Amino acid sequence: MNGTAYRLTPFDPAVDLNGFDCGEPSYNQWLTSAAARAHESGSAHVTLLIEISERATERVVGYFAICPTLVVRDQMPHPMQRRMLRSTPGWLIAKLALAMPLRATPQQWGRQLLREALVQVIAAADRGGGAIVVVDADNDGLVPFYERNGFVATGGDDLRLFMKIATARAYLTEPG
User: pTM of the predicted model, to two decimals?
Assistant: First the structure.
């Protein structure tokens, strides 16, 4: 029997972040050197995915950060521009990273982290507004993951993808 459990928690400076490795040095470094500052300053809300082993040891195996943003309508994919303000308030999934050993698991941890980020974005939009969710894929290899999960690319060279808040709500009603 596998006694490993997982929990999501808001960023906690007492949690050891140094063992995290998602295979992307910039994401590992951001977690260890910038996440605390971003969370404490209020510029981003950081959520950690913690793995709890049978021996009750804990380690960070994933994280994401969300923050408010302003999206210029003309930079969105053309079909999304209708009914949007010239400068539309939205939410940025600024970071989303998963430890390498969890990437190919049947639990689809990457998708689960993304779903939780969207849950938090929708809750924030319900309290403070926002019509769009934005994610920067950071590399071409991540674009298909976000597209499979409902985001739309601009079709240009940039790696920014978009999803309407209404689409995110519908996405969350789909089975896990």
Answer: 0.90
